[in-house]
Backbone:
């Protein structure tokens, strides 16, 4: 539950560029890893858009996602915010064509190269017990990563 004292409310709105009623009101302070504004409340950091939702709609989002109709992650205009499940938010993203797939080496957090995945897939052709652990240690990844390669849950675009 998001609990706000008046000084929190004042501090929050001081960090938002409030424009016209239908414009995006962009967060002007700290930004989280994925581009969402972050606001400090007693107990920790919280998404600025979640605080804006509570202030603008006078209701708590609970476990639901606070989604943006404007697709601007910095936006804190309550008119642009709506509640939905993660599935609702993903469907909204896909409907608007915003889903960007970054397979393999295009993904910013990849550890393996395509050549290494090919080597792993070739080694897995002669699969034996404990091989995922051994390959994981050899390539510096988890057993689960090797298992995901084996079951084609990841790196599907690389063929051995």
Residues:
């Amino acid at each position: 539950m998001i609990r706000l004292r008046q000084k929190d409310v004042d501090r929050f709105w001081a960090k938002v560029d409030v424009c016209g009623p239908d414009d995006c009101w962009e967060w002007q302070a700290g930004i989280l890893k994925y581009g969402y504004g972050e606001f400090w409340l007693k107990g920790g950091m919280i998404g600025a858009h979640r605080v804006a939702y509570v202030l603008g709609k006078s209701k708590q989002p609970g476990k639901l996602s606070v989604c943006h109709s404007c697709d601007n992650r910095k936006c804190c205009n309550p008119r642009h915010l709506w509640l939905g499940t993660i599935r609702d938010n993903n469907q909204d993203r896909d409907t608007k064509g915003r889903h960007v797939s970054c397979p393999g080496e295009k993904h910013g957090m990849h550890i393996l190269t395509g050549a290494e995945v090919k080597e792993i897939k070739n080694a897995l052709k002669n699969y034996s017990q404990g091989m995922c652990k051994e390959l994981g240690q050899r390539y510096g990844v988890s057993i689960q990563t090797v298992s995901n390669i084996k079951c084609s849950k990841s790196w599907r675009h690389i063929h051995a």
Summary: Helices lie at 6-13, 48-57, 86-95, 114-124, 131-139, 143-150. The first helix runs from residue 6 to 13. Residues 104-150 form one domain. The longest strand covers residues 38-41.
